Every structure is written in C-alpha cells, then in structure tokens.
Amino acid sequence: MHLQTKHLIGGVEIKVGTRLLQHHSLLQRAIVIAAVCDSVQPMRWHGEVALFGQCILRTESVASDALAARAAEDAFAAKALALFAA
C-alpha cells in the first residue's frame, strides 16, 4: 500500500508547477509619485516620479497638486507601457 501526502499552503494544494503569489511592498517603496509646489501666488505644482529615490520624470507646472500628481502618474504609465511593449 502506498500512502500519498497532500501538501497545503494557505489552503492551496501544492503540486509541481503550483504558483503562489508573494505579497511584498517592493513597488510601494520603489516608486514614489509626488506633487511639488512651484509657487503659492499663483498656486503652481509639478509632478515627479522617483524610482528608488532618484527622480526619473518631472511634469510641467499645473494649477493644482491633484493635477500634477495625475500628470506624473499618467506620464509614468505611458513610459512604462512603451518600455515593456517594445
């Protein structure tokens, strides 16, 4: 008689080829999107994206912090997609 043992991790049966997603905060630490105040009268902001502490992208100056952050996020997404789609 041959007994088989099932191996479970987090309720998932482990077999050859099983893929377990690992939760990490690498991207949360690696990529920082910020709105930076350029002037207060009139209020002007630019967006920046930093990768591992180095500024890799800077947007044009806009009227609000929300617009600056959104512009930085959109510009970063476009560059990332262009890089990985090539």
Give the spatial strand order of the biggest sheet: 3-4-5
Low-confidence stretches at least 5 residues in length (pLDDT < 50)? none
Q: What is the average of the pLDDT values?
A: 87
Number of separate helices: 2
Can you describe this structure?
With 86 residues, the protein is α+β, with helices and mostly antiparallel strands. The protein has two helices and five strands, in the order E-E-H-E-E-E-H. Strands 3-4-5 form a three-stranded antiparallel beta sheet. The protein has a two-stranded antiparallel ribbon with strand order 1-2. A hairpin with a 2-residue loop joins strand 4 (43-51) and strand 5. The model has no long low-confidence stretch (mean pLDDT 87).
Which secondary structure elements does this structure contain, and how are they paired or packed?
Elements: E1 8-9, E2 12-13, H1 26-30, E3 31-40, E4 43-51, E5 54-58, H2 65-85
Task: List descriptors.
single chain, 86 residues, alpha+beta, three-stranded antiparallel β-sheet, two-stranded antiparallel sheet, 30% helix, 33% strand, elongated
